[in-house]
Amino acid sequence: MREVKVKHVYRHFKGDYYLVEELARHSETGEEYVVYHKLYDDGELWVRPLAMFLEKVDHVKYPDAAQTYRFELQEIKSAAGR
Question: What contacts 64, CB < 8 A, 6 or more positions away?
Fold first, then answer.
């Protein structure tokens, strides 16, 4: 099963990038959520159910989507060579 890495960057299938800040749990239902910042414009904070964050792209609705999953982890290498 896929897991979300906190403090890592993910690409949304529509092209923008997000930094996952934390995983959280709903106090009433226990449902897990992903808390993340968008890495463009105002850097607004967002929250989405974990299951939705990890789901596959609906390729019927979005036939031109290149990604398999809604959010995909980005491996960003250090520009300083570290």
Answer: none
**CB neighbourhood size of 71 (10 A):** 24
Per-residue pLDDT of the chain (82 residues; tens, 9 = 90+): 689 999 999 999 999 999 999 999 999 999 999 999 999 999 999 999 999 999 999 999 999 999 999 999 999 888 887 6
Q: Which helix (H) or strand (E) covers residue 51, if one does? A: helix 50-54
Q: Which CATH superfamily is domain 9-73 in?
A: DUF1653-like domain (2.30.30.320)
Q: Which residues of 6-39 are buried (b: 16+ CB within 10 A; e: fewer)?
A: eeebbbbbeeeebebeeeeeeeeeeeebbebbee
- pTM score above 0.85: yes
Closest CA to 47 of 30, 35, 57: 35
